[in-house]
Design brief:
The structure is a homodimer.
Chain A (H helix, E strand, L loop, with lengths): L2 H4 L8 H11 L3 E3 L6 E3 L1 H20 L3 E2 L5 E3 H5 L2 H7 L5 E4 L2 E3 L6 E3 L4 E8 L4 H11 L8 E10 L13 E11 L2 H21 L6 E4 L11 E8 L5 E11 L1 H5 L3 E3 L5 E3 L1 E8 L1 H10 L16 E5 L4 H20 L4 E3 L7 H10 L4 E5 L1 H6 L1 E6 L5 E5 L3 H26 L1 E3 L3 H10 L2 E5 L4 H11 L2 E6 L7 E2 L6 E2 L2 E5 L3
Parallel strand pairs in A: 3-9, 17-18, 17-19, 22-23
Antiparallel strand pairs in A: 1-2, 4-8, 5-8, 6-7, 9-10, 10-16, 11-12, 11-24, 12-13, 13-16, 14-15, 19-20, 20-21, 23-27, 24-27, 25-26
Helix pairs in contact in A: 3-7, 10-13
């Protein structure tokens, strides 16, 4: 068994440590020399690339186009929208100089004090400000609307406590920024993009999510409404996996972006923004993986099928090669990414453990006996079950199996979430359940004060007001004040 | 005629202004609020995305994998490699603080002096240092080599004089960083990637390039050898379009990256790096475009074919729609991106001028007469020639035409370069020819002193020592000292 795997902490022992170790051992990412910034390694990046490709296609299908805006934002731009600066000023990386020079006292390279910027520049924590400053020149009339633009880029927020993928100072993401002629259209767009995220999470990541609205307290800095998809991790904690914001006219007012409407009147433009980030990698890893390593959904696995030969000599290997090569071709023709690992410098047992650790969904093992029998041994990563299957039409069989695995890990995650979703009505039940973990559906009186008090007492936050929740009058679990419907409380990442 | 087009400066009047205007009018990019940083607009970004996709596939076909390294680099890393810091220190954006705060005197948001970093961070101008610092932990033995990694990212160099795409403070690029067990393998890899660039330039950009070696003076800061592809713009100036560096063991030594070789000895790793950037957009625009606007090579055009209907009433439009829709489907089936512009709020003449400005390679125009005759009017953007073609099998016809256009603009660019490439032997000829523009093949004595003197006197630099040049002893055009072969001199972007 590979050393890496043997050393992996068990989830039951320490879930948090299991995650941290798994990210590194499975070659997904590692800490860099710069505090809070990660290196995304090739295997991890290959998964992110697949996510990007799927999301990008889905965005484009809704009419969105990509563009690119500057990394640096003038400091004064942040201040234009009051809530926005409040939300981001405390975690900004600030560029103050544009040159280094050789120290006259021989201390190496130092910042050149003469190259100080007149106005400091901020590394974008998000790009609403620079983008809305640009939109001012792009939008004149209702005919220029809607404007549907997205960018894939890096952003920077100086987080004090960081964890690989889940919370890093620099992260990769996409941020969509749309401009509309009416409030209704903008609000619909924000919800449409939330639906795209939910659809992506469920179909590709095999990640069931709850769609909901954030409370005022948890809203994006500058938004009138923040929509969210919330997922549950195996330890019962929530992970916010994507957000879509209805920004009203806040940024249009801050950057003076007006348009002439159909009635020939000048009006401020309506806005949305929406984003998902490399944090999704954290959600993916934590939702499906097990004590043997990663479990990747087939739709996002960089290697979907690995084939390992078992042989004692080169003649046997040559026989196996002859059988495997057409299988590889047939699988590739179906668009399945397959690796035939006939490298002779590693033992099969090592390969098995390594591909398990890396979460490859399907493993085929072939030895001389299998060839005689016209069969192959198949292991599926999600259940770790092995069985034999005929070599004939193995490509169709494997294609079908990959879909079964995709469905199975989704079902499993959904069953887990449902088994850990509770409805409670008293404060005692509430505190006890929060302690045990999971989503807790409870009544809340709608005030920020109560929300913060509950957080202080239990470390639980309101993840969202579910969009498909039903009206159900009740009494706030803390104050007893009236509540129109239940909200989801949980501890969260 | 569209206003934008009417206003476009002619190349013959002012080539430089023609370029600047074209980039903006064709909706490719614009200046941002941050000095030297551009906004890449959706139409420009769509071309860049196509370039990325092609290059990425080509890199992957050579075994390269993508990864991601931090945006910020500790200042001290730059100093580790002496030439490297010399090359980049003077144009670094420096992050000194990690927080803003509200000014106590009510001046808005200011840098929080208490949030000063112990060590300043540099926004990457290129990533050799942070990547080789990372490779130290990835490489132990010859079995870990070669390591073939690329990243797509933004970089920042504080340029004083900037021009959209050609020279911007922030730009997008890819940077490949490979690690090898032997000098020979690294050197070969550097040349292999140069060949990939040349192949991409010629096949996709329709851009003929000269492959060559840079002089010591023009080498990348920290490289033992820099290979380059040099293209000629329509004004006869050179544009360096991609470089690939053999870095020797310089970065391995600076970051202490050793491996155990097959003979069980500890040795420093051999390195390459190679990159192309959004500068390629500048090369693309300047090589093919004309006084009517962009001319895009079909292989990179976001819209390859536009179809414009001519009609007087809705019945006529309905008839045209019925004919066009299956053509659109047939073209798409062939992987051709086509836009049917039947919007009724713009006149055909406006559409024609607009798609010409945007460089759409093929335009089909259909009116009631054409439908009667079973023909369509075709305009090819490269020659602006119009002709009629039968509607039957029009998709095959257009597919073929796109390839002809691709070939034609390549041939045209090559003929232009050849017509402006001169061999000269005397200083008088040399200065006169440099003044008239073009590539000047001349002898040079091999010294940096002479190279700099020539630059001072004529503003011409040595673009490269051509790789396919032949040995041909001669005398330096300036000093008369012996020279083993000719090099290419030119003024450049």
């Amino acid at each position: 068994m590979a050393k890496e795997l043997k050393d992996l902490t068990k989830r039951a022992e320490n879930y948090s440590q299991w995650y941290n170790e798994l990210v590194v051992k499975a070659d997904l990412a590692e800490q860099s020399a710069v505090r809070g910034c990660m290196v995304i390694k090739p295997y991890g990046y290959a998964i992110w690339e697949k996510m990007q490709r799927c999301l990008d296609d889905m965005f484009k299908a809704t009419g969105v186009q990509n563009a690119y805006f500057p990394l640096l934002i003038p400091k004064s731009f942040l201040s234009r929208e009051a809530d926005h600066v409040e939300g981001f000023a405390k975690e900004c990386a600030v560029v103050t100089h544009y040159r280094l020079k050789n120290d006259s006292e021989g201390k190496g390279v130092v910042v050149d004090p003469e190259a100080r910027l007149e106005e400091e520049l901020i590394i974008r924590p998000t790009s609403e400000t620079i983008i809305w400053n640009t939109y001012r020149n792009w939008i004149n009339s209702y005919r220029d609307l809607p404007l549907l633009v997205n960018q894939w880029c890096n952003v920077f927020r100086w987080e004090m406590r960081t964890r690989l993928f889940l919370r890093t100072a620099e992260f990769l993401w996409q941020e969509g920024h749309t401009a509309h002629a009416t409030r209704e259209e903008a609000q619909q767009k924000a919800i449409e993009m939330l639906n795209v995220y939910a659809d992506f999470a469920e179909r590709y990541m095999a990640l069931p999510v709850v769609k909901g609205v954030k409370t005022a307290n948890e809203r994006f800095a500058g938004a009138l409404e923040t929509y969210t998809i919330e997922a549950m991790m195996q330890d019962g904690k929530a992970l916010q996996s994507g957000t879509s914001h209805f920004l009203g006219q806040n940024f249009a007012k801050a950057f003076d972006v007006k348009f002439i409407n159909r009635e020939n009147q000048l009006e401020y433009v309506w806005a949305t923004s929406w984003g998902v980030s490399t944090r999704l990698m954290g959600a993916l890893i934590m939702t499906h993986s097990d004590d043997n390593g990663l479990v990747l959904p087939p739709h996002l696995a960089p290697i979907q099928v690995v084939i390992v030969p078992i042989y004692k000599n080169n003649d046997q290997l040559a026989d196996i090669d002859r059988v495997v090569n057409p299988i590889v071709d047939a699988l590739r023709k179906r668009g399945i990414s397959v690796k035939y690992d006939n490298a002779d410098n590693k033992r099969p047992g090592f390969k098995f453990a390594d591909y398990e650790l890396k979460g490859v969904p399907v493993r085929l093992v072939l030895g001389p006996k299998d060839i005689e029998n016209g069969t192959v041994e198949i292991m599926r990563r999600d259940t770790l079950e092995k069985h034999a299957a005929p070599l004939e039409n193995i490509d169709a069989y494997v294609a079908d199996l990959l879909e079964q695995i995709q469905q199975n890990i989704y079902d499993k995650a959904l069953a887990h979430r449902e088994s850990m979703t509770y409805t409670v009505d008293t404060w005692d039940e509430f505190t006890a359940q929060i302690e045990r973990g999971g989503f807790v559906l409870a009544h809340w009186d709608g005030t920020t004060e109560t929300e913060e008090k509950i957080k202080e007492l239990t470390k639980a936050t309101i993840r969202c007001i579910p969009m498909d929740g039903k009206d159900e009058p009740g009494k706030c679990v803390l104050t007893g004040n009236p509540s129109p419907r239940r909200v989801i409380f949980a501890r969260n990442y």
